[in-house]
Structures are given as structure tokens and as C-alpha cells.
Design goal:
Number of strands: 8
CATH superfamily of the largest domain: DNA integrity scanning protein, DisA, N-terminal domain
Order of helices and strands: HHHHHHHEHEHEEHEEEHHE
Helix content: 40-55%
CATH class of the largest domain: Alpha Beta
Radius of gyration: 24 Å
Shape: elongated
CATH architecture of the largest domain: 3-Layer(aba) Sandwich
CATH topology of the largest domain: YojJ-like (1
Distance between the termini: 37 Å
Strand order of the largest sheet: 2-4-3-1-5-6-7-8
Length: 289
């Protein structure tokens, strides 16, 4: 530190900007690997580099020679071990609105149809997973399922998730007002911080949101609870109005005013009297990575 202090007086605006940019990049890297298995791998790599530097400084030739065969391959190991985190970070950079560019994502035009289907599936305790595409395309996952390219409707979703039918297992991917594909295979999250009670459907809902900026709506076949996942975070035990609010918030749609609600009251999905009602004061359960 004493060696760098004399040069601190010569620090200009360019140097300050350079330091801030480097600090921001380091912070972003730490935020990406925080709470994941990649964080422990990164600590192990830093330990290897530190031991190599100590061996080089202390003149431990045997240890330095041994580590000299490993350290040159650390760069390649980082690319292989952190490929999912690197892909996720690049996707986040790509969806940023730099100078107002990149905006313009739209919510599905048939949100009410989705909500009505989800409400019915929850009452019947029928498992379902619906993925709503935003900025980042889901073509890779669409090709893994059965392409439909059908107009989105409540009846279509109920037919797809009917137990015993071929398209029941897997996810439905929605693009704007169309069902792009059904029975799609999604990547499962590998976050060790998640509860072991979460099943494959919920882990797939979280996994796809870690890969892209989509939103997933899940219905549990065990208890009929509705959950919403976005950006690697799962919110469980939501009511139908909560699902609508989270979809609108995710896609940047303004909430309707009281006048709009009065004019279009028939378009607002209401819970049936026979279905389970959420208890007052019951907070949604949050599952964070």
C-alpha cells in the first residue's frame, strides 16, 4: 500500500473512472456467484492462486513447480465451471435498457385467460407450469416440446394440462397471445439454498427464470397452491389477484385505475365460491436463492 500512496496524488478523473468501473465489475461478478455453488468454486480458485503467489514469494520451488502445471489452466477452468453464470450475466447485460434502448417488451395480451385457467387448475389440484416470454427469446426450449402456435385461451390451457394426456407433463410457453409450444423441457435450478421439498415442476420454473427474463406460473398438484417465479426467485401461496399484479409488474404494465375497473369489471377474474379462499393476513411464502 505504501508503494501506491505516492501515485495517489497524481490521480485524475480518468483514473477515478477506471477504478469505479473495475469495482463495479468485481461487484457484479460477486453478485452473480453469491449463494450458488459457483461461489465455493471461485473461493477454491482464489485459494490456488494465493498459494501459488505465496510459494513464488517465499521461494518454495517444489510447491511452485507443482502449482505451475495447474495455474495456467485456471482460465479454461473458469469458462467451463462458470458457463451458466457467464451466460446468465451476458443475458442480463443484453436486456438492460442502455440509453433508453432495448425497451418495448409487452405482457401477454390474454392475461385474463391465463389467470382463469390457473384458478381452475388450482381448484382441481392439477399440476401446471406456464412460462411467459419477455425480452429474451425461448426458442431453444420451444423446440424441445410440441409446437402448437395456437391462440391462447382458457380452454386450450385446461385441455393441455388435463391429467393423462400426452401434453400434460412439461411446460407451456406463451409468446404474446399465442401458445408457442407445450410439453417443453426446462432446465432445473441447481441452487443449493432452495428447500428440498420443492418438486421438479417448481425447480424447472425457477431454472428457466435463471436463464432468461421470463416469468413462470406454477400450480402444485399436491395442494393446488399457485406460485410465481421470476429472476431465480419463487413466491408461493399467491392468490389470483396477486398473480395478476405480479404479471403486470414483471411486464411493466400499469395497474388499472378504479374507473377502469368499474368500466371493465367483467374482465377481472373472480374466485369461485367453491374454491379455496386465502385467509386474511396470510402472507405469501417467499423462497429466495
Amino acid at each position: 500500500m505504501l508503494r501506491f500512496l505516492p501515485s495517489a496524488s497524481n490521480l485524475d478523473l480518468t483514473g477515478v473512472v477506471d477504478i469505479l468501473v473495475v469495482a463495479f465489475l468485481v461487484y457484479q461478478v460477486l453478485m452473480v456467484v453469491r449463494g450458488t455453488r459457483a461461489g465455493h468454486v471461485l473461493i477454491g480458485i482464489l485459494m490456488m492462486v494465493s498459494i501459488y503467489a505465496i510459494a513464488l514469494w517465499a521461494g518454495l520451488e517444489a510447491l511452485r513447480s507443482l502449482l505451475s502445471f495447474i495455474v495456467p489452466y485456471i482460465g479454461l477452468a473458469i469458462i467451463v465451471l462458470f458457463q451458466s453464470e457467464i451466460r446468465r450475466t451476458l443475458a442480463r447485460i443484453g436486456r438492460k435498457r442502455w440509453l433508453g434502448l432495448g425497451a418495448g417488451f409487452r405482457a401477454p395480451e390474454s392475461v385474463n385467460e391465463i389467470v382463469l385457467a390457473v384458478e381452475h387448475l388450482a381448484q382441481q389440484k392439477t399440476g401446471a407450469l406456464i412460462v411467459l416470454e419477455r425480452d429474451i427469446g425461448l426458442r431453444t426450449f420451444i423446440e424441445s416440446g410440441v409446437r402448437l402456435e395456437a391462440l391462447l385461451s382458457r380452454d386450450l390451457l385446461l385441455s393441455i394440462f388435463q391429467p393423462g394426456l400426452p401434453l400434460h407433463d412439461g411446460a407451456v410457453i406463451v409468446q404474446k397471445d399465442r401458445v408457442a409450444a407445450a410439453a417443453c423441457f426446462l432446465p432445473l435450478t441447481t441452487n443449493p439454498a432452495l428447500s428440498a421439498k420443492l418438486g421438479t415442476r417448481h425447480r424447472a420454473a425457477i431454472g428457466i427464470t435463471e436463464e432468461s427474463d421470463c416469468l413462470s406460473v406454477v400450480v402444485s398438484e399436491e395442494n393446488g397452491r399457485i406460485s410465481v417465479a421470476s429472476f431465480g426467485e419463487l413466491i408461493q401461496g399467491l392468490s389470483v389477484p396477486d398473480v395478476v399484479e405480479r404479471i403486470n409488474r414483471h411486464f411493466g404494465v400499469e395497474r388499472p385505475t378504479p374507473v377502469q375497473i368499474g368500466e371493465f369489471a367483467a374482465d377481472i377474474p373472480l374466485a369461485h365460491d367453491t374454491g379455496p379462499k386465502p385467509r386474511e393476513g396470510r402472507a405469501a411464502e417467499r423462497v429466495q436463492p
